[in-house]
Amino acid sequence: MIASFLEFLKFEKRASVHTVTSYETDLDQFQKYLLFQYECGAPENANAPMLRSWVVSLMEEGLNPSSINRKIASLRAYYGFLRRKKHITKDPTKILSALKTRKKLPAYVEEKSMEMLFEEATFSDDFEGLRDRVILELLYGTGIRLAELIDLEIPNVDLTGRTIRVFGKRAKERIVPVSSSLIDLLKKYLQQRSPVENTKKLIITDSGKEAYPVFIQRIVKKYLTGVTTLSQKSPHVLRHTYATHLLNRGADLNAIKELLGHANLAATQIYTHNSIEKLKKTHQQAHPKA
Fold first, then answer.
1. Catalytic site residue 240?
2. At 203, is the secondary structure helix, strand, or coil?
3. In sequence order, which residues have a C-beta less than 8 Å from that of residue 225 and are 6 or more positions away?
4. Which domains occur in the chain, in start order?
5. Which residue intervals define the domain Core-binding (CB) in the entry (predicted)?
6. pTM of this prediction?
7. What tens digit of pLDDT does each residue of 186-206 get?
8. Which end of the chain is more exposed for a tag (fewer CB within 10 A), N or C?
9. pLDDT greater at residue 73 or residue 169
């Protein structure tokens, strides 16, 4: 039944490859636990105490609460699927409660540091240097996700209209505006980019193949290392940076939500915490009674 559930995620829910892989990993781990602990080979035959026992074992292993909550979410989705398909009559996940987690503020790079990156960082004069700059400018200038950057195709870059068409989670389409300076950079990049057979992907590797996650992550880390001391130097940090800088400069929260491709406003509101923290610091530094 797990295979049927994964197919449902792929073809009906149109979940991302990353999401499907996460569910598959969680359910495989759970299935192995049931077999070892209870000699139960089929998760659809598991009861509520068995599910609770697995969660407790994860806590005893020292797994962090957010990771455990993700596994609980995987179980809920799977047993919800089984119930809709009438393979079970009672949902055993009803007794599971999400663990309390500390809310982390999104890490972001300061504006001055981003200015330093694009004004002072040394990008080589060859195609690779130009491509690296395009990657960083796109991530910071549009806030797109890593997977969205990798999937971005040349026909979806509108140089005249100064927009890119992005396909986000569950293939949800959105149009993101692009600055005139980034458009000029993209024109230069496309002129130098050699035609590659069998792919329309915008970003390619040094050898002309389609980019992949680790390739992009290495490039981002390489350049961010020179301008920030943040422990996390990833493409997603540039997405957080994009949203935070927009908000700090007065952008409407609903507009940021649409630009980021969030399904609801709650996901975007986390960026307001960074703005509030900045206001607190300003108050402490400037007010006589602070």
1. no
2. coil
3. 233
4. 2-95 (1.10.150.130), 111-285 (1.10.443.10)
5. 1-83
6. 0.70
7. 999 999 998 887 889 999 999
8. C
9. 73
Out of 131, 133, 193, 239, pick the active-site residue.
239
Q: Is 165 a catalytic residue?
A: no
- Does an H or E element contain 199, and which? none
Annotated catalytic residue: which of 23, 33, 189, 271? 271
From the list 52, 83, 169, 201, the catalytic residue is 169
The sign of the CA dihedral 148, 154, 155, 161 is positive
> How big, in percent rounded to 5, are the helix, strand and coil portions of the chain?
60, 5, 35
Which residues does residue 164 pair with via DSSP β-bridges, in sequence order?
A: 157, 176
Annotation marks residue 262 as catalytic: yes
Mean pLDDT rounded to a whole number for the chain: 92
In contact, 106 and 112? CB cutoff 8 Å: no
Structure-block tokens of residue 193: 């980019």
The single residue of 71, 131, 145, 233 carrying the catalytic annotation is: 145
| Token pair 């409660």 in the structure block, residue | 97
Q: How far is Cα of residue 274 from the mean position of the Cα atoms in its chain?
A: 19
* Residue 209 is among the residues annotated as catalytic for this protein: no
Percentage with pLDDT > 70 across the chain:
95
Residue whose tokens read 């990833």: 234
Average pLDDT over residues 221-243: 95
Cα dist from 54 to 20, 29, 47, 273, whole Å: 21, 10, 11, 34
Q: Which of the residues 76, 221, 262, 273 is marked catalytic? A: 262
Number of other CB atoms surrounding residue 200 within 10 Å? 11
pLDDT tens digits, one per residue of 33-67: 999 999 998 899 999 999 999 999 999 999 999 99
Given 165, 221, 236, 273, which residue is catalytic? 236
Q: What's the confidence (pLDDT) of residue 198? A: 82
Confidence check: pLDDT of 103 > 90: no
From the list 179, 205, 206, 189, the residue with the least C-alpha distance to 154 is 189
CA-to-CA distance for 265 and 253, rounded, in angstroms?
8
